[in-house]
Amino acid sequence: MQLLCLSLPEILDWHYLRYPAVQASDIYKLLHQGVYGPGHLTEHKSDVRARLFQEIDSLIAANRNLNTAGSKPSPPSLWEPLDTRGLLVRVNLLPIMNDPGQLEKLASVVAESALRVTGNPILMADRMASAEQWSRERAPHLAPTINQIAAKAATEGYPQIHHSAAYRRCYQPAYRVVLAELWQD
Question: By CB neighbour count within 10 A (0-12 exposed, 13-18 middle, 19+ buried), where does 101 fall?
Fold first, then answer.
């Protein structure tokens, strides 16, 4: 994996092109992950591993059901950019779900990433302001809600949130946020 240093508008464009049903809350989640990483995970490595393998079991069952139904969506890329410095990425589970070695590595990398990454509310505020500008130019229908989410999140200390129902329904996101340098080693 080659680290990509992209501008924030380039990252937002990248995700918007791949996930056109993205909502303002999904933009916030993307930015949050690019600033705070997997820091909301405070479990031990064994807990991270158990949750990862539990999700993999669900993905395998869901994938089996899709195969029998005859409509299997194309798999996502292995990783997706999250921050402008190329430090954090989303590692998608579908491309590696049948590779126990990669899954074990991912569990370790998630746990280590959670220990190393600390968020910065000033950086988050700056990224939200940039996302508001981006949305006015590229996705005007999202701009008012991004502005509302930014204001509310700032007063609440930028909490972690879930993907929107539309995003979950359209894309069934299954990934882990990690430090790119740890994943590529």
Answer: exposed
